[in-house]
Each structure stands twice: as structure tokens, then as C-alpha cells.
Amino acid sequence: MPNTPPSPRRRGAARTDALLQVTLELAAEVGYAGLSIEAIARRAEVGKHTIYRRWPSKAALLMDALHRVWTTDLDHRDTGDVHHDLREQFVRSAAALSEPPIGPVYRAVIAEAQSDPALRAALDERFLHTVERRTLDRIALGQRTGELRADMDLTFATEILCGGLHYRHLLTTRPVDETAIDDLLDMFMRAYATDPPPPGKRAGDHRALPAENRRARSAETRG
Question: Per-residue DSSP letters for the chain?
Fold first, then answer.
């Protein structure tokens, strides 16, 4: 039986993924200022019109490349433990922001955005909003499962969670290490968990039970 050729949609998705990966790699080499649609097209061996049909500018293309990483490789997972899942994702994203290709690209974009309103708007709409929304979605799930207080709007708390690590990474020389992540999440869990850790204990110390047992314990606490 002859092999079935991939559908045009799958071929299109593969081409898009390849273009986004090339964009990140080239941006890491030449910086945002040195990046151009022409250079991306040459590296990807496609015509410029192929890129311009999808993206109006290099800023939009680069932001979609960052968006793709955050919604695939760096997305939040669901193990049934909101604290564990937030910590695990923050550790992975902190490492990504410190290493090529994401780290150098992100720093260059932040610097350039201060004097480029269009880039700043693209950064907010296509990337930062994604970072916050994915985190808020995982927190909202924690509210629905009873791990976090359901009577609170945690939109602003999510912004603080995400912003705290980005602030330390971009504007200070202090490390975004596991201690910093644990301190930030301890503060969050003490404020919003339905079963907050007792004084002197880390937020994760009392959660060494299987997920179903933690949920049962949380339900007992609420009852």
C-alpha cells in the first residue's frame, strides 16, 4: 500500500515550526537589531513572501517564536498539585530565560522595546500575555480542585508571580534559582492555599502524598 502523503495543513504546520525555530536561532546569533525577514528567509530557504503572508514584521514573527516555546516546551503541567506544577514550570522557564536561544533573545527584545512602541505592544500581546494566561489557567484549576481559595480573583497575584521572576532575571544580578522560586511560591501559597503550610515549613513540605490523597485532605479541610 502506498504511503499517504501528509495533508497540506500538516505540511504548513511543519513549515511554520521550522520558521519559528530558525527565527530564534538567528536572533540568538545576531540580536534583535541584526535580525531581518530577509535573513530569516535565507536561513530557512524560503521566499520572503512566504513569511510576509503570515507575519507583518520581524517583531511579530519573533514574538510568535517565543509564544510557541512557552505553549509547548515550557507550558504548565497538571499532576494534581498546583504548588508542584507551578514550581516545576518556574524552574524550567527560569533555566530557559538564562540560556540560548531564549535568554539572549529575550534580553535583546526587552532592551529594544523600551524605544520601540510597536515592539513593546507585540511583546505584551503575543508573549507576556501568554506567560500570564498560562499561569493563571493553572492557578484557576487549583481553585476548582479546592487547593486554592475560590473566593479570590488571582489575576493580579498571577502577574506578581510571573513578574517577580522576570524582574530578578532582567533587572538585577541576583540569581533566579530554586531558593528564589521557593520563596516566591511560599508567599503565594501562604496567602491563597486552602491548606497553607504551618509556620516554619515550606509550601511543598506537607504535600508528599499522592495527588488523590492531597485532594481528599483539602476537601476535609474545607468541610
Answer: -PPPPPPHHHHHHHHHHHHHHHHHHHHHHHHHHH--HHHHHHHHT--HHHHHTT-SSHHHHHHHHHHHHHHTTT----SS-HHHHHHHHHHHHHHHHHSTTHHHHHHHHHHHHTT-HHHHHHHIIIIIHHHHHHHHHHHHHHHHTTSB-TTS--HHHHHHHHHHHHHHHHH-SS---HHHHHHHHHHHHHHHBSSPPPTTS-TTTT--S-HHHHHHHHHHHH-
* Residue 182 CB burial class (10 angstroms; 0-12, 13-18, ≥19): middle
Cα-Cα end-to-end distance for the chain: 61
Output the nine-digit C-alpha cell for 101: 536561544
- Residue 52 CA: distances (Å) to CA of 10, 43, 47, 49, 142: 20, 15, 9, 5, 41
When pLDDT is cut at 50, 70 and 90, the band that residue 3 belongs to is low
Question: What would the pLDDT profile of 38-97 be if each residue is shown by its tens digit?
Answer: 999 999 999 999 999 999 888 889 889 988 888 888 999 999 999 999 999 999 999 998
pLDDT of 20 > 60? The answer is yes
